[in-house]
Amino acid sequence: MSINTEIQNNRAKNCSKNEYQVVVIGAGPQGILYASWLKQARPQLQVVVLERESQPKFKIGESTLSGFCKALRSVGISQEALELLFFPKNGLGFFHVDESIENVTEAPEYILETFDETFQVERRLLDGLLITNARRLGVEVIQGARVDLANSQLSDLGNTIAYRFQQQKYEIKSQLVVDASGPASIIAKHLDLYNKEDVNFQSNAVWGYFKNVNRLGDRTDWQKVAQFSRDQYTQHFCFREGWMWYIPLVSWENVPEADRESMFNRFLGGEELPTKAELAARHGCPEEDLISIGMVLRTDRDDKFAEGRKVAFDHYAQQYPALAELLEGAELVSDLYDTQQALRARANIRGYAEQAVGDGWLSIGEAAFFVDPLISPGLTGGVATAYFAAQSTLRAINCNNFSQKAFADYEAFVGKLYEALERDNQLVYMSFNHPRAIELIQRFQEIDARRHFNQHIMSDYCLADTNVWGILNPIYQSLQKQLWQIMREAEIAVGEQKAVNQQTMEDYEVMVSRIEAYLVNYLDIHSELTPYIVQNEATEELQTELTCVE
């Protein structure tokens, strides 16, 4: 028996049939941050997290935003530690590609420049760091615990949660159970409350990890000016049927299991941090550069995913010459993280719990809803639900009331956030019909997001941050809904005349004109909040002046 297994076994035995105030199912970022915030607010609370896997494993979801990194700092994970471990991310990039674009540098581009430095994370390492940090705060985390809801009881008068560990059965009693199991959403699915059907834009995803990609950061012939290397943005290659992501990573896959805990404790213990080279040398784990590349395809526009993940990936990689050029000579890594498939796939990725709370339980993060990886909403939206739920939990504990009604404010918040994130996400998808639409929608979304960030830049993570990039502000909501109507009407009208594979950007000129007319004043008034536009206008003016001088 390994030391790790023995430690986990002892933890399971020590908590057998104990009573806790809160049981969390799932030790991903949302569940761990929720538990950590509870312990920070009330150190005496008895909180336990049950995690199915014995060790953090490979997960998709690498791209972070400022709200998520702010949440990490709020529980004691320093920006310096994140800089050591992960690849820097300084915004979002968008390229419009069609059959006429031969090279990425020729593609129309828009960049949403960074609010502050965030990161492209290796999830196995991030999740392990969060678990170690939570234990330092006093949260009990039992890894390798498989929850058995069929033999559990949920009630506002008290819950009994059954789980298995090392073939042994255990039970835990608690006042509240929190489902943070991610897309598994085990409580909602157990109660037949999870819905994947009633969504406007269902999508499928296929992805893998590559070496020897023709990296964007090595190119210099860009048409526009950016603040950072193109490798330091989560890049979106946008086309009719969906989009492709491009995310550079620092992989620490070769860190020995026994060394990970000592690595994490060093980051969290207040010691002077080493350089990245010193860290790799000390633990015998040289970092490795990889590119995460994946495609997300609209089910109403794509017919290749049904033929297989490789068929779909290869089809679009060849249909669009700019993607073919980017991937020419790239090597698909087949054995990363001990997985069996070089290309991974997930069908019908969007879904939501029709009910996020019940008597004695609630769902947070992706257990409550999963939108789509487009524009990286998952981790940031997820921790917003986790923080809001933590505040609602503290009030419920004060009142000793764990009924569904006691969490009505949280239920309402989750519903509003899910609907707003869905609309935002769908606006971006519909903008892929025309490069000018991409720019207009990105500028519109950026203005409120940057304004919201600037207003709360100096504060610790708080309830204001659960208004993810200002998406719930009434004025933004009003504009967002009207834009959605304009763009949806255009897609329906064009779709009635032409099949998707016959549509061109010219078919959406009327849509673009309507968007421009609707947004022109708003974008002009707030132009200072779109630095990509400002910096490129300044560059063009300077070039014009120099030409005149010559």
Describe the protein in words.
- By secondary structure, this protein is an alpha+beta fold.
- The protein is built from 16 helices and 19 strands.
- It has helices spanning 3-14, 29-41, 66-74, 79-85, 123-136, 186-190, 257-268, 276-283, 309-319, 321-327, 378-399, 408-431, 435-455, 474-497, 509-525, 531-549, and strands at 19-25, 47-51, 87-96, 109-120, 140-143, 146-153, 159-165, 168-179, 194-195, 203-211, 234-239, 242-251, 288-298, 331-332, 344-346, 351-353, 357-358, 361-363, 369-370.
- Strands 1, 2, 5, 6, 7, 8, 17 and 18 form an eight-stranded mixed sheet that branches.
- A hairpin with a 2-residue loop joins strand 17 (357-358) and strand 18.
- Helix 2 runs parallel beside helix 11 and helix 3 (66-74) crosses helix 11.
- The radius of gyration is 24 Å and the shape is globular.
Task: List its traits.
single chain, 550 residues, alpha+beta, eight-stranded mixed sheet, 16 helices, 19 strands, 41% helix, globular
Beta percentage is 15-25%
Biggest sheet details:
8 strands, mixed
Overall 3D shape: globular
The secondary-structure class comes to: alpha+beta
Q: Tally the helices: what do you get?
A: 16
* Cα-atom radius of gyration: 24 Å
Mean pLDDT: 92
Unreliable spans are: none
How many distinct beta strands? 19
Helical residue percent? 40-55%
Give the termini separation: 77 Å
Structure summary:
This protein has about 550 residues and is α+β, with helices and mostly antiparallel strands.
